[in-house]
User: Which sequence fits this backbone?
């Protein structure tokens, strides 16, 4: 089947009406208090339910984080539940496309393929790829399922494409991977520093906190190559070249030291590595950084002075600094600015990464990652292994060791070492860097199984597709980006013959002969096992119960025992979670991105998100309002560059890199650097900007470099334009009326 | 806009708009709700007497039995709010979520607005929230003075919003000239 045939049959179709149509909204039987699935803010929302259908929503004004506020994705989220594209039966590949199959037939086939591949090529030749839009319960279950039922080391997750550099940087500096403060500290800070985060589009409900701070006189600094909506309102917008964050931060630290803004007591008594760090920035003057970053050195001095002179501050960062081959360095260079001034662990003194995915925080804590066990434990640490072996009732030899990270999994698939995979909650045909490479890897698999609620573009490459469940179809918990554990409620049951993800995993485990390890009467029992498994780890949930979460409208981990109030703000005792109790400073010498512009490919290409879509767009590309606002990718380009290239607004151009090419319309705007173009990433196949990105990795976090590539641009040919128009038209196919 | 379409009286149809201020230069956007004028120009210019203001000061969409879809309201409103819908031959616009506000709820748009660009509440509340600005509801468009029920937040030294000389005839960077269409360049 061609992509066009897949779209005709399985979508994405756009739907513009609720399950019961616009005309008659049945009186809701109940309003289910749950959370939006569409980002790490986890805004509270009340889903209106009638006759097992989600028919609308009401704002949940009592939920403390968002007090009813929602972004357009949150408002329209309920339209996905009964969408006509929902998969409702298992599908097995035939010569041409898929045929419907019974659960027995599909599950038997999967089990026989797992057994066959593992018998022939070893346990680790079968792999699993997962995602953190799953609840904590499902994330924990996936980790245990892969290690015990599949008995493979090769499990990783899509956080590897998201914020994993932040996690690695936080662990190095603080010994714990969590935002240090709740968002309620933001309005109490007098300087807000946002590095590489388009907060206004990616976390709209967080803006409220930033503007509250500004209403009380705070100054705002935004570091971004683009003038995003939040950068537009900043007191200082530092529009640096993509990939130069660590140089900027080194120069700021240089200025903090020169102007004696360093909290000497704090760095000498509470931190380790100060003198080495200070030495490392001796020559990093604002002029030096200005040259690298492409900004005025006076501007660097001004923001350094602002950061140095304030008593309170909150530093936020996101994917803009993290999705680099030096993502961990970028994160550490920001943390160094926080620690050098000692502004952490107090009211109005904060730091945190803004985690992007729905359960980006909780999902990365409990054994979802290739090198991790529940409680954010290290899979190579013998003491950590012993604890989890005891909880799971297995011996050390039965517990796999560290496996390959996401991109490394795809490299191993490409090389033929990994022959089978189960993919859940992940759409790498949109989100994997260098999607042409990813496609080749998928095509080389002997067996590929996808669990999803819609036919994602990745599922098109599957041998078996199992219809799973949406967030609103299962009980569970997630952990928001401020480390607040919240309750997700099952508003409805999965449609027709679809199963919950949990039921699918438990049934597969049973058929793989591991039933005795997976005896859970309900999802709460999974959470209660997670609590025991996480006990004593840094991400300690032992004292959190479903009942407490509901009563207290969320509990902040660490929460080591039942009577513990939870920990909204970390480091109040001025101690880190490292064994020595110190905050660790790390020099971050500037180095180039994997690929920078040259004469052949002279323009920086960077990528990111739109407010109207969530991640790979599997859900949001099916909702008409969101598609109307943002139908497909466009290339943002400065008028000076447009003039140089002799192209005009709206014209179709073709971007080329060493990996591939992409034809898109251009949007001419002064809100971007002259040497840089931007394309959002939510679309697949010929519309994927990830056809152009590099799959080079950060050496520590294994995060790919989505934010920097070198490209060249030319007017589209007639043939390319024809294809693009057809692809654009396909983005707006209406769902058949029922 | 997304939330507005969820209101029970006009389900599926948003009654407010979001304008891009100057897309060629800036990502700035502005939500445009009906300002609910005390002396509404749309109603004054309506030859069919189809636009009514109620006792709460809410200016409503055109009345079905009366509206002749002449578009006077569209042309006369200084804020550009009323829009005549061709398919139903009626003017529809923001009614301040009458179905919600009449039962003590806030309008849907202001309840969910993630940034506080839209706010529904008392003067005391907004003064506490935004100490650096103040609400103003007096406007001057050339010689026309307008007082509205909806307020905008402005710096403390501003008492009246003055719109004197709108810049007409600007060609936005988003527009495509016919000459470009014919030049062999490709567009969507």
Assistant:
């Amino acid at each position: 089947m061609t992509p066009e045939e897949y779209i005709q049959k399985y979508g994405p179709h756009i739907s513009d009406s609720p399950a019961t149509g616009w005309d008659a909204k049945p009186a809701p039987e109940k309003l289910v208090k749950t959370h939006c699935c569409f980002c790490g803010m986890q805004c509270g929302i009340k889903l209106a339910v009638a006759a097992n259908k989600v028919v609308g929503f009401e704002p949940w004004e009592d939920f403390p984080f968002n007090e009813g506020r929602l972004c357009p994705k949150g408002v329209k989220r309920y339209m996905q539940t009964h969408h006509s594209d929902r998969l409702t039966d298992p599908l097995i590949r035939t010569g041409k496309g898929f045929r419907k199959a019974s659960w027995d037939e599909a599950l038997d086939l999967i089990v026989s393929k797992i057994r066959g591949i593992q018998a022939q090529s070893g346990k680790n030749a079968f792999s699993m790829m997962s995602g953190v839009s799953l609840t904590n319960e499902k994330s924990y279950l996936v980790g245990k399922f892969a290690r015990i039922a599949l008995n493979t080391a090769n499990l990783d997750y899509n956080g590897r494409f998201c914020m994993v550099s932040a996690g690695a940087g936080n662990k190095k500096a603080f010994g714990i991977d969590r935002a240090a403060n709740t968002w309620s500290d933001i309005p109490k800070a007098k300087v807000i520093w946002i590095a590489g985060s388009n907060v206004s589009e990616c976390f709209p409900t967080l803006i409220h906190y930033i503007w509250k701070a500004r209403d009380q006189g705070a100054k705002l600094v935004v570091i971004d190559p683009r003038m995003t909506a939040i950068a537009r309102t900043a007191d200082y917008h530092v529009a640096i070249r993509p990939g130069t964050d660590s140089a900027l931060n080194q120069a700021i630290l240089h200025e903090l030291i020169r102007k004696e803004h360093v909290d000497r007591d704090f760095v000498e008594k509470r931190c380790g590595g100060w003198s080495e760090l200070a030495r490392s920035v001796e020559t990093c003057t604002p002029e030096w950084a200005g040259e690298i970053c492409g900004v005025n050195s006076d501007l660097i001095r001004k923001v350094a002075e602002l950061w140095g002179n304030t008593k309170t501050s909150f530093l936020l960062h996101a994917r803009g600094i993290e999705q680099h081959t030096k993502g961990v360095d970028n994160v550490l260079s920001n943390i160094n600015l926080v620690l050098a001034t000692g502004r952490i662990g107090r009211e109005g003194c904060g730091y945190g990464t803004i985690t992007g995915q729905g359960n980006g925080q909780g999902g990365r804590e409990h054994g979802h990652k290739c090198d991790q066990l529940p409680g954010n434990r290290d899979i190579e640490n013998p003491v950590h292994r012993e604890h989890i072996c005891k909880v799971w009732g297995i011996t050390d030899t039965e517990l796999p060791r560290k496996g390959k990270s996401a991109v490394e999994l795809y490299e191993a698939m490409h090389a033929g070492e990994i022959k089978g995979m189960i993919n859940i909650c992940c759409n790498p045909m949109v989100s994997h860097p260098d999607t042409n490479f990813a496609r080749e890897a998928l095509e080389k698999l002997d067996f590929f199984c996808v669990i999803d609620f819609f036919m994602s573009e990745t599922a098109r490459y599957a041998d078996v597709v199992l219809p799973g469940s949406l967030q609103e179809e299962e009980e569970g918990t997630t952990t928001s980006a401020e480390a607040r554990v919240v309750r997700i409620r099952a508003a409805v049951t999965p449609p027709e013959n679809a199963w919950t993800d949990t039921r699918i995993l438990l049934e597969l485990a049973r058929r793989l002969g591991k039933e005795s390890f997976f005896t859970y009467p309900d999802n709460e029992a999974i959470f209660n096992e997670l609590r025991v498994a996480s006990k004593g780890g840094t991400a300690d949930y032992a004292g959190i119960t479903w009942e407490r979460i509901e009563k207290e409208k969320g509990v902040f981990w660490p929460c080591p025992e039942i009577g513990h109030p939870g920990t909204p703000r970390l480091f109040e005792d001025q101690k880190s979670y490292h064994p020595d109790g110190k905050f660790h400073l790390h020099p971050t010498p500037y180095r180039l991105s994997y690929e920078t512009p040259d004469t052949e490919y002279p323009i920086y290409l960077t990528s990111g998100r739109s407010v109207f879509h969530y991640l790979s767009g599997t859900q949001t590309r099916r909702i008409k309002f969101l598609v109307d606002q943002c139908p497909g990718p466009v290339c943002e380009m400065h008028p000076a560059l447009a003039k140089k290239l002799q192209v005009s607004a709206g014209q179709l151009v073709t971007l080329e890199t060493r990996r591939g090419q992409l034809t898109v319309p251009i949007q001419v705007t002064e809100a971007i650097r002259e040497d840089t173009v931007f394309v959002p990433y939510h679309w697949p196949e010929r519309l994927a900007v990830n056809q152009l990105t590099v799959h080079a990795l950060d050496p520590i976090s294994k995060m790919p470099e989505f934010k920097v590539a070198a490209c060249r641009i030319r007017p589209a040919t007639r043939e390319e334009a024809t294809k693009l128009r057809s692809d654009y038209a396909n983005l707006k196919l209406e769902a058949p009326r029922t | 806009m997304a939330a507005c379409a969820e209101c029970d009286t006009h389900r599926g149809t948003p009654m407010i708009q979001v304008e891009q201020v100057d897309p060629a230069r800036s990502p700035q956007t502005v939500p445009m709700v009906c300002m609910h004028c005390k002396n509404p120009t749309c109603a004054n210019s309506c030859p069919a007497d189809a636009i009514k203001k109620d006792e709460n000061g809410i200016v409503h969409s055109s009345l079905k039995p009366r509206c002749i879809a002449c578009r006077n309201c569209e042309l006369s409103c200084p804020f550009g709010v009323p829009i005549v819908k061709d398919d139903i031959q009626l003017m529809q616009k923001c009614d301040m979520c009458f179905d919600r506000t009449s039962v003590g709820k806030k309008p849907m748009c202001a309840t969910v607005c993630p940034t506080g660009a839209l706010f529904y509440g008392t003067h005391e509340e907004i003064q506490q929230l935004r100490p650096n600005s103040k609400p103003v509801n007096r406007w001057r468009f050339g010689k026309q003075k307008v007082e509205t029920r909806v307020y905008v937040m402005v710096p403390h030294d501003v008492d009246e919003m003055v719109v004197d000389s709108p810049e007409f005839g600007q060609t936005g960077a988003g527009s495509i000239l016919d000459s470009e269409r014919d030049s062999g360049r490709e567009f969507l």
About this structure: The mean pLDDT of chain A is 97. Chain A touches chain B through 56 residues (CB under 8 Å). The two ends of chain A are 25 Å apart (CA to CA).
